[in-house]
Amino acid sequence: MTSALTPDELLTTTRSVRKRLDFDRPVDPEIIRDCLRIALQAPSGSNAQGWHWIVVTDPELRAGIGELYRRSALPYLDGGGAYDDGHSPQRRAVQDRVDDSARYLAENMHRVPVLVLGCLAGDAAQVPAASQPAFWGSLLPAAWSFALALRARGLGSAWTTLHLAYADEVARLLGIPAGISQGVLLPVAHTLGTDFRPAAREPLESVLHWDRW
Fold first, then answer.
1. 3-state secondary structure of 6
2. pLDDT at 18
3. Where would you find the membrane-spanning parts of this chain (predicted)?
4. What is the number of domains present in the chain?
5. Which residues constitute the domain of residue 23?
6. Confidence (pTM)
């Protein structure tokens, strides 16, 4: 059953959910199927529809992915993650909370009831640099649609790619064939509460350029 959120509310309150994922509540597989059907309606470059979705619920497979994820994520976070010394004190405080929640997810990835990997047909390593945006542009809108559909049903997720440092190991674990590129890992669970709010953002005027920079 979907929520009564307006389109604007849905778009502005779909957050990256990490600490508020409910690890103990099962997720109905039909909810995942419904949300992926919605994701398949997203734009696809040249209508290629080259996406593939791997839904992982097996505890041993989730544990294997969780271990590989931690192996990549924790050193990254220990090294400062995406921290920027140029941020204002207020922005640094927010980033500290983001890093803390990212560490929490890394330490608990194996507990998330559903892990969804979004992939694309084709070897991303062979795609020229100028064509990389077009290649991944066929996956990004679909993954975002999936996240919106989850939010409308009381579930949450977070876009993460830190597992890609061990993409070959993940591919062997899940039997992903050669020529299929992993693009995103989406941990999926019901959320602890649904009262998400718009995030603090820099003013539009600080990033808006009209006609010229």
1. coil
2. 97
3. none
4. 1
5. 7-192
6. 0.94
